[in-house]
Amino acid sequence: MNSDFPIEEIHYQTNEFRPSVYGIKIPGTRGKLLATLYNSGGAGLHPTVLLLHGIPGNEQNGDIAQALRRNGFHVLTFHYSGCFGSDGNYALTHNLDDANTVLDYILNDKSFGFDKEHIFAVGHSMGGFVCSQITAKRKEIKGAVLMMPCDIGRIWQIGRENSFELKRIENLLEESADWLQGASKEGFLAELKEHSEEFRLESLANRLAQKPILCVEASRDIHTPPCYHCVPLENAIRAEGGTKLKSLSLETDHFASDYRLKAAKVVVDFLRDLL
C-alpha cells in the first residue's frame, strides 16, 4: 500500500468538472433516505465508494470521504431509516435493506458519473457490520474496508466469553436508541435473538474470502475490541482460503481519534491499489 497521498489539493478554478457536494433524497422502503454525495473533480466516470457510518452515527468519517474524493473517488454516504432525519424506524434489518437501496441507486443513476464497474464499500463500527453483509451478498461491490467493525451477530457468544463485554454492548445499544426513531434496547435484543446466526460476520467468511477486504483494528478500542469482533472474522476468512484479506492494527481508540490522517491514508491506499 504505497500509492501517493496528495499533500496539496488540485484547484479546478472555473473548470466545468469541478468537485462538488450534493444532498440527495433516495426513495427507500420506509420513505426518504438522506444521502450526501462527495463528487470528485474531473471528466468521465469515477470509482465509487459507499460509506457506511455506525450507530447512532455521530462519527460520520467525512475526512475519509474528502480524502477519497481528492484521490478521484465519488463517495456516497447516507443515514439509515430512523436516523438523523431519514424516514421510518431504525432497525438492524432496516440498515441492511437501506444499504441495498442506496447501492441500487448508484447502479441505476445516469447523471453523476458513477463507475459501476468499480464500486467499493467502507464501513465503520456498526457500519462495518452493514458493509460486511452487503459486500458478501452483492457482486457489484468489488472490495471493502471494515473499520473497527461490530460483529453484532456474535453478541451472545461474546456474552458467554465475557459478561462484562456483553453488558457494554447492551449499554451502547441503549444509549444509541435515544438518538434513533422507533429504537430501544429491548427491540435490538429481540432482533438479535431472531437474526443472530445470519448476522454473524463469520457466517459470511466464504463469500468475503473471494474479495479484497481490509480490516482496520484499534488496539485501544473499548466498543468493539478486536479479539471479539475483527479477529474472529479474519480467522474465519483465512480458514476459507481468503488470500485477499489484509489487516492492520492502529494504536488508537474506536474512532481513530488521534489517527485520523493515518486512517484516511490506509483506506485510500487500499482502494487505490484495487484500481
| Biggest sheet, spatial arrangement of strands | 1-2-4-3-5-6-7-8
Architecture (CATH level 2) name: 3-Layer(aba) Sandwich
Overall strand count: 8
Distance between the termini: 12 Å
Q: Are there runs of 5+ residues with pLDDT below 50, and where? A: none
Q: Major sheet, described briefly?
A: 8 strands, mixed
Helix and strand element order: EEEHEHEHEHHHHEHEH
Radius of gyration: 18 Å
Would you spell out the secondary-structure blueprint of this structure?
Elements: E1 20-28, E2 31-39, E3 46-52, H1 62-70, E4 74-78, H2 92-108, E5 114-124, H3 126-137, E6 141-147, H4 155-161, H5 163-177, H6 185-199, H7 205-208, E7 213-218, H8 230-239, E8 245-250, H9 260-274
Parallel strand pairs: 3-4, 3-5, 5-6, 6-7, 7-8
Antiparallel strand pairs: 1-2, 2-4
Helix pairs in contact: 1-9, 2-3, 4-5, 5-6
In short:
This protein is an alpha/beta fold and 275 residues long. The chain has nine helices and eight strands.
Question: Which characteristics define this entry?
Answer:
single chain; 275 residues; alpha/beta; Rossmann fold; eight-stranded mixed sheet; 8 strands; globular
